[in-house]
Fold these 4 entries.
Entry 1:
Amino acid sequence: MRKPPRYLRDGVLSVGLLVFSIGIGLGINSVRPEPLPFSYQAPASGFHRLENGQSWNPGISVVDIATARTLVEQRAALVLDARPDLFFKFGRLPGAINLSPKNFVTDYENCLPKITEAEAMGVPLLLYCAHEHCEDASKVSRELEKKRHQVILIYEGGYDEWERLGLKVEKGT
Amino acid sequence: MDEVLKSRAVVEYKPGAHHWLLWSFRLVLAITFVWAGVVKFVDPAGFAGSLAAFKMFHEAWINVVALGLPPFEILAGLLVLTRRGLEVGSFSLVVTSTAFLIALLSGLARGLPVDCGCFGGTGPSTPLKVWIAVARDAVLIGMAGWVYWRSHSIVE
């Protein structure tokens, strides 16, 4: 009987290895403190979604491009950029200050005076990161909520959508 | 008798410069993919975000791939260090790297803000970052492909 080609045999074994690996991955996921759900959800999908013009309540809410644009252009929110500082310097939404999860402790200390001033004036915090699948803005928003900051908005589309639409950005330090 | 000796010589592996190059490639591949697998294994949500940005998978599959691919990379990386597992390990790495390369080029072509996520995270993407990942994948495909091609010359 003719032997199958080597690559066919190795292909079948690779598929078997992949199936085995998926089993291991799913098994370990089931015992993680925060397991991934079976079906993917965008990082900000678990938060309340605000429609344009809707007023915000305490807590974390997600806003779309229209609301974010209004808040940024009217300077009606304190804009926080949750991306790494290198990308913050390359380009950011107008008026944004950097508050990344990687450097949270230092960045938060630097941002706290502006955050306190904004909250005293009743102005919400508007967070964003790279795009809708980036989890940095969600991570920072949860940290801010733990520190009892009240109104936290997440612009889900992120810097990529803002830039793609040709809206004004700032660059440099 | 001569024929028997000749046929054995064809399949017998003869150490030389290729031997050390093969071992170097195997080591580099093992370290790279085990490290990449561990980094993604520790942060599956971040890797899932990277996969979602490619817009190539249905939502139902993203987390399954995010959970299954890191152990696959780790196991394949370890297999290339073994004699028995060298072929299937190197074949698996060729396929994995090729899949990443195709995904990156597809993301670039569609103008998507993709990040390979190969070494963790959904960090912001730039075209330069993506092209560096493409070049890296091309090198890894070359190395794994050569290791696979040479693996048949090792005595079974």
Entry 2:
Amino acid sequence: MDEKKEKSPEQKERLKAEYDKEWRKVLRKSIPVKERMKIPRQKMPERKPEERNKDFNEVNLGLDSSQALIEAQRCLDCANPQCVDGCPVSIDIPSFIKLIEKGDIIASVKKIKETNSLPAICGRVCPQESQCEMVCNLKKATGVSVAIGNLERFISDYERLKGEVFIPQISPSTGKRVAIIGAGPAGLTVAGELAKKGHKVIIFEALHIAGGVLVYGIPEFRMPKNILKAEVQYLEELGVEVRTNFVVGKTVTLEDLKKEGFDAFFIGTGAGLPNFMRIPGENLVGVYSANEYLTRVNLMRAYEFPEYDTPVFLGKRAAVIGGGNVAMDSVRTAKRLGAELAAIIYRRSHQEMPARVEEVKHAEEEGIEFHFLTAPIRYIGDEKGRVRAMECLRMELGEPDDSGRRRPVPIKGSEFITEVDLVVVAIGQSPNPLIPQTTPELKVGKWGNVEVDWNTMATSMEGVYAGGDIIRGGATVILAMGDGRIAASEIDKYLKNYKG
Amino acid sequence: MMAKILQRVRLVPNIHLLEVHAPEIARKCLPGQFLIIMPDERGERVPLTIADWDPERGSVTSVFMIVGTSTHKLSLLKPKDEVPVFVGPLGKPSEIKKFGTVLCAGGCFGIGAIYPLARALKESGNKIITLIDVKANYLLYWEDKLRRVSDKFFISARDSSNETRDYIPKKIKAIIEKEKEIDRVIAIGCTYLMYACSEATKPYGLKTMVSLNPIMVDGTGMCGACRVTVGGKTKFACVDGPDFDGHLVDWEELFARRRSYFDEEIQSLCQWEKNNFP
């Protein structure tokens, strides 16, 4: 997180009201702070690397109830909780953790759902170590934060497995209709928030399953599809309608939807445009964009080919270019599909890798090779036009660039050729151009990103809001959800004053 | 959301027509666009060029050739069956305006796909010369439909029913030499046909548009499976095309990419046949 958030007066008041509740006081006193600080962080049970790197079942197994209770006891219930500021959607973290300690898991889920409609997802894919857990006061005191993400995952899984999914109070119908374009993390968040406020919400999704990057991008072993399905079902129970196979910009335009009587819009069409390096041989057979590779495997289930019709190449020597979460997902997928060598090729060093710490750790355990300070300069094909090798260049780190990370500088004469039969280019995505191309009034930045007022997520068109990767380029699920929350509250305000 | 099949007809061996209830798509279709269909939950997302549409009936029609498992599945659909994916219209529409005389060349599924282009170009005041390529005369379909929108109509067939037995490039050359004033050529069909047409018109510097059909997955620019090199630049056929200048396409690369999953297609088909026709 770049921007340091401050709590609003209302938020401070809300947090304090919870903090001052009698049961919280009793609970705080039940274990002395010193004792709490002695409790070790509970380790998330996970499957053995040599077992899990051969299938697509989930790697993490989730905390059990007794672990969750112990972990919740570690939380110091601070008077000024920093974790809340570290969360892009400002979850009341101490309250939900203390409810776990109290033993009321269902109340804990209700608490979290006040601010986050999709906790089972966030608990799995948020980079907590650079958000809530990074600023945790316990971390400052002992060096090890409360496992906030694991607890979030625990309570949402508990609720789902219990089969008693709590549906919050829905406000009376306002008669207003909101069109949400794209059923990814941003769109799903907006949908949930606005449905609770009594607006009629319809999500338009181009693919045949709702979820966006959660369904086509993030693999089953990290984000099981049945969990996503349950989250979407929860939104449908809130009254949200999802229309799949519907490409806004093609099947209808935003203007058409306006004429059909939608009162407000949210564009959350994501970073669906893969970047390539524009080096020779990039169009050889066997060179994939990460989007294509992961879509084939996740959305189209190529890992179950030929039971499913869509194939994917099973490389023996797989090289994945990049150092982010998408690169980790791709390389771990290649390993699971039987690659003898599955390697990350990254032009900077270990510490500049933008991937979540846990993903890198899991990848290392699973036998992924990491080649740092290395970049491909061309791919070499065989007589059939299939990739058989790549030529790389060694790098060294120079001065920091715009991103604050040290810039990789090529080392002259360091070229070398290595054999590969599968390459996945995971160097980032740009905003999907379909909506900007077909909505001329929409103001677009130089990277093709939809421009918004960052305080309100409002675009240049009245009643049209946007968030997630369509405004940011390739970022994270939780930032998209954070944008969604802001947009939802602004759309609600807009609709209250709107006389359409 | 499922889409309902209105009719599925075998036009000629291996080539079928599929009409699907899709009122929203039918309202938006323009010549040259395509759609993506998935026969069932386990199928592939198959791109098909749109061959016709009827906004009043709320239907979209496509003509396809049976190649792999998913198209085999499509060929078994019956009226009232439903498919989990029917999405479109995708891609940029073809350029339709008055060029003068346009030579429309089509082969296999492209005989159906060329029809809306010939019709729209005719309506825009062009003189239409239609040239249809078939291996043998019994593989010809939609002749009447095409004749109605054509000023001249030729068939290149390579069996005894046809006196010349020429493959399409020779026929194109003959037509160009005879007609002199052709302003544009449009070719739709298998990759080899489009390549052959482009090669035939190249010496005459006659602008030739082809509707490329690389392998696709999402069809909305998200995955890049369909990348083709055109004029030295990488393009995504799904959003930058599917129409490109045939003289600028890197055909060798396209052939290789089209053949990417040849072995897998056979494996998949064998498995499917074993499961369904034991």
Entry 3:
Amino acid sequence: MRELTIKDAINEALHQAMEADPDVILMGEDIAGGGGRDEHPGAMDAWGGPFGVTQGLATRFGRDRVMDTTIAEAGFFGAAVGAAMTGLRPVVELMYVDFAGVAYDQLLNQAAKVRYMFGGKQRVPMVVRTVVGAGFRAGAEHSQTLYSLFTHVPGLKTVAPSSAADAKGLLLTAIQDDDPVVFFEHKRLYMTKEHVPEEAVPIPFGKAKIVRAGKDLTIVAIQRAVQFAQEAAEALAVLGIDVEIIDPRTYSPLDESAILTSVAKTGHVLIVDESYPRCGLATDIAALIADQGFDSLKGPVKRLTAPHTPVPFSPPLEDAYLPLAPKIVAAARALLRA
Amino acid sequence: MITDSPRFEPFSPDPHAVISESGEWIAPFDLDLDDDTLRGMYRNLVLARLIDERLVRLQRLGKTSFVAPGAGHEGAQVGIAHAIEIGRDWLYPYYRDTGLVAAIGWPLEKLFGQMLATRADPARGRQMPAHPGSRALNVFTVASPIASHVPPAVGTALSQKIAGKGDVTVCTFGDGATSEGDWHAGVNFAGAQGAPIVFACENNRYAISVDLNHQTGSGGIAAKAHAYGMPGYLVDGMDVLACYYVMREVVANAREGLGPALVEMAVYRYGPHSSADDDSRYRPAEEVAAWRLRDPIARLRRFLERRSLWGDEAEEGLRSEIAGELDEAVAAAEAAGPQDVDTLFEDVFAELPAHLERQRERYRLARRAAGEDG
């Protein structure tokens, strides 16, 4: 069976979406060649974004559809809104989610609100692809996850795949969606491989994945934390603790019932997220369980996140910062008194 | 397409005008508008002014919470309205452009429905007053964060460029907007891409209380076009025909693929920034009075009178006709009644997601328990 990395799965999804629908265009910094010099053919494929995710698309579909933009995120985010309103389906690349601040108003007040402010008479089918995550030795301004900044806003959908097949299927759904979607790609997961179907099969939003079934403890894991939780589950199995791992995959919409069903089965829950804890996804999911799953709980709802500090650059500090598997094992044992 | 288009010089030191203060035609080209069109423009100027007066009255009566008076801007707004193809081109107005959306023929009942947030509002009461928008007429719903509509306008123009049908976008804003990062990001992107868009600045010299010299060191707005590789035109915004002719030329150029332009229309706002402002505290009364003497309505009227196209009787008839239309529209907008609370949950997404469905149900139950409808 054919295996692809997340990076290649995303590239394949973009190829297939652009092939299937001429209205799909890509906009971003350095996503085509970076140089904008058509007379220099090598420039067509020189970059493909900092991680090379869009490589080959400019050659295949031309620069009208794969557009190197000016270095002004507010400009091309806003332009994507206006283009999405008038027939196109722009997929915009935000080089790092850390740069969202300079473009945030276009998402917060335009993309997310146009449908509502038009009384439902106008759609904005755009996708923002962006790179998140610590563990790349890149410091405080290239390592954040910031899922909650977008999930907080009514009118935006948010997606954070943790595997290659999910990345492909969810991106296809994002591009076909008639509402704005923010699609988070974790830089430390790009090279993760698995079998990915060759055909373009969209995966619906709002459907969590049970990554591992178990009966003693539910771990709700956010994007890269799925990987950490899988490592931890192996170690916990040795101790006789049978872990169930839920990957919500999309945060707006959130599959609340999958989480509540699992908690009803195990009675114990740990939520793992490498984001800041205050007002973050882990906190939001904890509140959901406290509010609607309280009767099935046999213990406290526990969160394991990064500390509420910026992401440090120093390698030992960054390693200490992340909710890696040993911390999950310790938290699970404390929770189950095992 | 306009083949015999008069040519205006970009970056002129003085504003372009085609009729003098006393109403004489002073342009070096012939007027090519028929009498009905001229009277139609005049009607739209008066309509905009009377809507403005009516809105201020509605606000004082407590029927709407906010107005952004447009009196003094009518020449620019009506000039723009007559220079575009309504329903084909896209318009990205700003919050002082109620006169502009009226001039393109947005039904008055909807306009007042928007101001009063009743069921007559096609946007279902979601926007604050003075924030019109119309999907049917290709009018973007007005954005409150200043200049944040500029990049989306550029995106619409890029989409029009890719579609290749010769449609264009016109984006308006005040002088203050030209300081925003979004404005520069959008205008620069349009220049880099050769997008078919016209940026039209209704420069009334004040951003609330901050005067133009504290807003920019450029001396004016048109000059900024230099930096973005597009022509910039300075126009007398109190001369509706000058606004129309300059806009007609740059819109035609954009339609033919010659790229974007920036038009600065020198206007003045007679009233306060909004119903929450007292302009007498920062503007000398003499300055306001001097600009009022240059009124765009009076100027076009003198022009029409010189051509025997207008007189006191016509004026009286027009004003009472419009007043009647406004009475009717306000009454219809009010009679439509308030929006249903259930609509609160709709249109956040294309489809109602499960969490909003649950919240809607909770609200219904609470309203029922409180003895309200639901």
Entry 4:
Amino acid sequence: MLTEFGKIFVFILLAVFFVLIAFFLAKLIRPSRPTREKLETYECGENPEGSPWVRFNLRFYVVALIFIIFDVEVVLLFPWALSYQDYGIYGFLVGIIFLLVLGLGMAYEWRKGDLEWARPKQIPPKLKKIKEELTEAVME
Amino acid sequence: MNLYDIIFYIFAAITVVSGVITVTSKNIIYAAFSLLFTFFGVAGMYVLLGADFISIVQIIVYVGGILILLLFGVMLTNKVTSTDIKSGSVNVLPAVIGVALFAGALISIIIRTKWTETPGEIPLSTAGTLGSVLLNEYVIIFELLAVLLLIALIGAASIARRTKEETN
């Protein structure tokens, strides 16, 4: 007899053993003749250049923070959604106020432009001068 | 030793082993990834204790959210020039004293508590009960949680905006 979480546990076991058995079989079958080129980091066929530890844009972190806040909001809404019908309009209003307060935050973010991805300022190449030079060269 | 105990010991082993790796690993990325298994093992223990909602929250928020944030933090804060990010040990003696005191307090609580064994029934789902409690006794706390999340949201946004002005 299995509970619902027992089924999930069986799925987890299946997932783990699927990967482990696949790796083990591949280890048994495949030939192992490493060369220097094979062991190099694969970077789309190019020679790897520079450190992989580049500093990432801070915007990723902010988006992740906003994601977690709305994640927690959804988690808090699950128990409310399961039981608000038993309380009629009162239960509904409690949830609406909760959502409105968070909607205020969402509106604030939206208005202040925090949800927009800040792109680095692009400096366009001066085409006009080159074009003038080219036309002069052609005229001559 | 029945199946329940075996599953408990599997999750306990996952939690403890990955927790030890988290603390002892020199590479901070390995530490972060082993923390993932610690959170997962704790979620499994919540399931075995019959706290289904808490375990799902553990998976959604901690494994899915906080850990990603941690990895982002690692990627954002390391120096570009140093290729290996190592974590060292500082202030060993004060840490040992603090941990020893905390562990002593925990062990004394464990010894003093009278553990009662509950019959092994299939526990009911707790999410609905939690919801009705949130709508009755703790309705103020429920709304205050929204305000707390709002504060966190605006705080995160304002931190981001200040750095944007600095870079421009």
